[in-house]
Amino acid sequence: MGRAGARRFAEEGAHVIVSDLHEAAAKETAALIQGAGGSAEARQLDVKDLGQVASLFDDVERDHGVLHILYNHAGIPGAAGLDMSEEEFDLAVDVNLKGAFFVASKAVNLLRRAEGKGSIIFTASVSGIVGSPLSPLYSMTKGGIVLLMRSMALDLAPSIRCNAICPGPIDTPMLPQFFGRDPGANVSDLISGFMGAVPLGRPGQPEEIANAALFLASDESSFVTGVALPVDGGYLAR
User: Fold this and answer.
1) Which residues pair with 72 in a beta bridge?
2) pTM, whole model, 2 decimals?
3) What span, in angstroms and rounded, lies between the C-alpha atoms of 43 and 56?
4) Which of 31, 71, 126, 206 sits a CA distance of 20 to 30 A from 166?
5) DSSP of 179-223
6) Is the peptide bond before 203 cis (omega within 30 degrees of 0)?
C-alpha cells in the first residue's frame, strides 16, 4: 500500500521521499518512480527509533525547506489473541502508535510552511473502528491512531488537515500474515471466510488505497479533516 501511494503521488508530480525499514525496499520503490519519469529519493527509517525520525525531518528541512504531505503509513499486524510476551506487545505499540505519533509530531513544523495546504494521512484500519476478536492488540493500536488523528485535526486546524484511511482486507503480502499468526491456521480458509463479510466480495487492491490517499492529500479534499475514511468494500456498512 505504501509503495502504491508513493507511486500515485509521483504520477501527480510530487517529489516523494520514500522511507522504509528496509533500505533496499525504499530504493526499489524510488527506482520504480524514477523509471516512470517521476521524482523520488529513498531513506531507510525505523519509526521506533526517534533519533532516525528526527534526522529524517532535519534532512527534509535542509534539502527542501517545506513538506506538503505526510503519508504516515508504517504498521505491523502484531501478535494475535491475548497470550503474548511483553516484547511482542511493545513492538506493536512502538511501531503502530509511538512511531505514528512521533513521525507526525516531527513533521508539523515543515507542514506549517505549506501555506495552508499541509496534509497528514494516517493509516488506521477497520479494526480501529470496530473490534477484532482475533487481534485485540492490533485493534487497540489502530483505534489509538483514529483518536490521535482526530485530536491532531483539532489542534492543527486550519493550517494542516489530518485524516486517516481505514482499509479493509487489501491484497498485499501482509494480508495472509493477519490470518496466519496462530500455529496450524488454515490461512486460505480464514481469508475466504472473512471475505464473506465484505459486501463487494473481494479484497481491495493497493491502488485503491492509493487513490483514497491521493484524494486526502489534494485540494479536492480541502474541506475534509478529522475523518476516518473506510476503504473496505462495504465491511463497516453491516
Assistant:
1) 122
2) 0.92
3) 8
4) 31
5) HS-STT--HHHHHHHHHTT-TT-S-B-HHHHHHHHHHHHSGGGTT
6) no
Strands 69-72 and 39-44 come out as unpaired
Q: Which residues are catalytic?
A: 138
Cell of 112: 506549517
Q: In Å, how far from its chain's centre is CA 222? A: 20
Type of residue at 215:
F
- Position 7 pLDDT exceeds 70: yes
Contacts by residues 179-185 (CB-CB < 8 Å, ≥ 24 positions apart)? 179/134, 181/77, 181/79, 181/80, 181/135, 182/80, 182/81
- Short-list 205, 175, 207, CA closest to 191: 175
Place of cell 520503490: 29
Q: Are 78 and 88 in contact (CB under 8 A)?
A: yes
Answer yes or no: are the C-beta atoms of 112 and 221 closer than 8 Å.
Answer: no
pLDDT digits (tens, 9 = 90+) for 120-154: 999 999 999 998 888 899 999 999 999 999 999 99
Report the distance separating Cα 70 and Cα 49, nearest Å.
18
